[in-house]
């Protein structure tokens, strides 16, 4: 799998990079929504891990843009929201915003691999 990490905080990206390396996935990383859109226009990815609160263009604006402006099937790429918020309070809102799943802090290998397997079934067992 090739996965795009979108987060303005270096240490958050660093931790996700380490987890993705351990899971054997390829990755690229950018710092805000505008850079994410540029990366997705240039390259193919299988999944996006997207922070919510970022400067320049936040996660909700970015998902909205991808869902409404990218051609099919690129507009349907699985996008996971990265957040510290309680999922029980926020999950419906994030679904409405166009996210597929929520990955809550603290991140760990099991949470991340479960989400990747759920969203990309052909990845299972690899
Ligand atoms: Mg942030």
Question: What can you see in these coordinates?
Answer:
This protein is an alpha/beta fold. It has a single domain, classed as Response regulator (Rossmann fold, 3-Layer(aba) Sandwich). The protein is 45% helix and 19% strand. It has helices spanning 10-23, 33-42, 59-69, 87-97, 109-119; strands at 2-6, 26-30, 47-51, 79-83, 101-104. It has a five-stranded parallel sheet with strand order 2-1-3-4-5, with helices on both faces. Helix 4 links the parallel strand 4 (79-83) and strand 5. Helix 2 packs parallel to helix 3. The longest helix is centred in the N-terminal third of the chain and has 14 residues, at 10-23. The radius of gyration is 13 Å and the shape is globular. The protein starts with a strand and ends in a 7-residue tail after the last helix. 29% of the residues are buried. The mean pLDDT is 91. The structure holds magnesium ion.
Short description:
The chain is an alpha/beta fold and 126 residues long. The protein is built from 5 helices and 5 strands, in the order βαβαβαβαβα.
């Amino acid at each position: 799998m090739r996965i795009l990490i979108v987060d303005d905080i270096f240490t958050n990206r660093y931790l996700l990079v380490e987890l993705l390396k351990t899971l054997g996935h390829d990755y690229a990383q950018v710092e805000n929504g505008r850079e994410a859109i540029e990366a997705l226009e240039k390259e193919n990815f299988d999944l996006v891990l997207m922070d919510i609160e970022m400067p320049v263009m936040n996660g909700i604006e970015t998902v909205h843009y991808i869902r409404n402006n990218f051609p099919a099937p690129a507009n349907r790429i699985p996008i996971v929201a990265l957040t510290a918020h309680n999922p029980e309070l926020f999950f419906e809102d994030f679904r409405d915003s166009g996210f597929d799943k929520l990955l809550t802090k603290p991140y760990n290998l099991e949470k991340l691999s479960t989400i990747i397997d759920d969203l990309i079934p052909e990845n299972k067992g690899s």
